[in-house]
Design goal:
The chain has about 350 residues and is an alpha+beta fold. It contains ten helices and twelve strands. A twelve-stranded mixed sheet has the order 1-2-3-4-5-12-6-11-10-9-8-7.
């Protein structure tokens, strides 16, 4: 995929990855938590953050996202989810003399979407408070607290400390590299103008695209798990996780490809789509978002993925959406990104996942 010019970001995707630690060693040992945690410091009044600070975090995030031209907006519900008591987490922030939050860092341990145990780091610094080494201080604290959270999590297996760096944020990539992180995955947000013609895709005999129905849900989940395991990716989703995910979708924008060539109908592929209305004012348009697309090996190369995409795009347009959006993982071996490009999706935004292995 040539949408992402990695040379601009100072990273080489062909460079050898660092040798991975032995996952047989207990994570509490591999995490090597430091005896003393480096608390964030610098200008401002620093303290630990809790769920009662959610509104202050949302306000700061909105300022940061407006300044850095981020094509999405963090919602209050998303911040509240970060403070979920059952998930190991820690947050720290700095306030100015008026009591406004001007910088913060968050670390949260998660395993739901990958076989790797991850301490995911996030945060932000007010544009007027940058160039004061606050980001450096936060990243150092995040590294220390992440090791402690992982060591105490009781989890085992491969582990990482992870940051997602937006290309638009000046200095963040350099800071992460200097802090020992390396680029691992590259994501490009793509967008398709729904005012343009949407092609009709003819499917073979016995194949049809059908509206989403709970009848197909578990078959679609199994198709999802199988589609990605074919490529050696451990993205298996349990039934309860799948139902929560499906519950957040817009049903009329979701479809399944069904093969009725045998006595029992089989799901050959699926597509799930949602809407993030909180982002629309910042974007300046209405957008339907494609969350997941999968086609089982037996039906690949037969237009199933293309037909699923065009059905969803037509549903977007019928609902008054201006664009279709999707995030493309450049480590995705399925080659689906080429399909998006052929259907008129264009790159608009880039994010890189940086990680340290434990």
């Amino acid at each position: 995929m040539n949408f992402l010019d990695l040379s601009r970001l100072g990273v080489d995707p062909s460079a050898p990855r660092p040798e991975l630690p032995d996952p047989g060693v207990p994570l509490a040992v591999r995490a090597a938590p430091p005896r003393h945690i480096r608390l964030p410091g610098g200008p401002g009044r620093w303290r630990a953050l809790h769920v009662g600070d959610t509104r202050a975090i949302v306000v700061l995030q909105r300022i940061v996202e407006d300044h850095d031209r981020i094509p999405y907006r963090t919602t209050e519900a998303e911040i509240i989810d970060l403070f979920e008591p059952s998930v190991p987490h820690s947050a720290y922030g700095a306030f100015d003399d008026a009591g406004d939050l001007v910088a913060y860092g968050f670390v949260r341990v998660q395993t739901a979407e990958t076989s790797t145990v991850r301490a995911t780091c996030s945060g932000g610094v007010h544009p007027a408070w940058r160039d004061k080494a606050l980001g450096t201080s936060i990243v150092a604290w995040q590294g220390d607290i992440a090791r402690h959270l992982l060591a105490k999590s009781g989890l085992e297996g491969p582990a990482q400390i992870v940051h997602f760096a937006d290309e638009n944020v000046d200095g963040m990539i350099d800071l992460l590299v200097r802090s020992g992180f390396t680029a691992r995955r590259w994501y490009t947000q793509m967008r398709r103008d729904l005012a343009e013609d949407i092609p009709y895709v003819e499917l073979g005999t016995h194949l049809a695209i059908e509206p989403w129905s709970p009848v197909w849900s578990d078959q679609a989940r199994r198709a999802h798990n199988q589609a990605f395991s074919d490529y050696g990716q451990s993205l298996a989703v349990a039934p309860d996780q799948w139902e929560r995910h499906v519950g957040a979708m817009v049903p009329e924008w979701c479809f399944v490809a069904v093969d009725r060539s045998k006595d029992r109908a089989r799901v050959a592929g699926y597509i799930l789509a949602s809407k993030w209305e909180e982002d629309w004012p910042a974007l300046g348009w209405r957008e339907g978002y494609i969350e997941a697309l999968g086609v089982l090996a037996e039906w690949r190369g037969r237009g199933v993925g293309r037909s699923l995409l065009t059905h969803t795009m037509m549903a977007f347009r019928a609902a008054g959406m201006d664009f279709a959006g999707i995030d493309v993982d450049h480590d995705d071996p399925t080659g689906a990104q080429h399909l998006y490009a052929e259907l008129g999706f264009e790159p608009t935004h880039r994010t890189i996942m940086y990680a340290t292995d434990l």
